[in-house]
Amino acid sequence: MNEKQKWGSQVAKNGFKxxxxxxxxxxxxxxxxxxxxxxxxxxxDLTKIEKxxxxxKVPKKSKTDVQIQVTVYYKDAIDxxxxxxxxxxxxxxxxxxxxxRWVSACVEQWGMPNEVGEIFRYFSGEYKPKIQAPxxxxxxxMTEFSQxxxxxxxxxxxENKVMIVSDILKGRGEFAAEWIxxxxxxxxxxxxxxxxxxxxxxxxxxxxxxxxxxxxIKINKITLQRKGGDGGRLSANQIQFKVNPLLLFEQ
Length: 251
Hints:
Number of strands: 11
Structural class: alpha+beta
Helix content: 25-40%
Strand content: 15-25%
Distance between the termini: 16 Å
Radius of gyration: 20 Å
Shape: elongated
Order of helices and strands: HEHHEEEEHHHEEHEEEE
């Protein structure tokens, strides 16, 4: 078995249009080669599986798109595996919003200090710029803050990035995603890759935290920026995290 086969990375005969089709493949696992490979990567012995049931009926705010319930002969309980599915149709711009939230949610969930929260409120546009002649009258870019303020933000993110990356990519609780399937459906190629969420988090988030030349923030391959858009509604003043799942194809 070569490296691509080992991790479920291969050219697919047919693309996946939505999460429901992925669930359907698991439900007909006995005749679906892809589903058999994915179950094998999850650690199951196919000869020991009695039944597989996959559903897309999961909480909307969870990081899981498909839950796979596997019954095996030698266990009394049913195993539940949570899968996140990313479908990308544009190979040039695969950036995908993985999380958005108000600064107050960051303060509550991540224990963000008030002084850091204040900076993010200017960054997101909750507060109007406190400097003269800002680049954007609606908000401030990270490059417009003082060096001290920038270091406060960078140091806090560095100290807490493991928790933050886990929450925005994997999630918490019963429906935390344990696996990720990225399907690339472009004019040039139809392919997919299947990996553990821990691998994905390490690849995307384990790296330097820095302020970009455009005034946003990067946590390795994850971009943290003002949400914007939304037709000028208040929700434009949230912060969002974006990542390009196609980077998972890079070994």
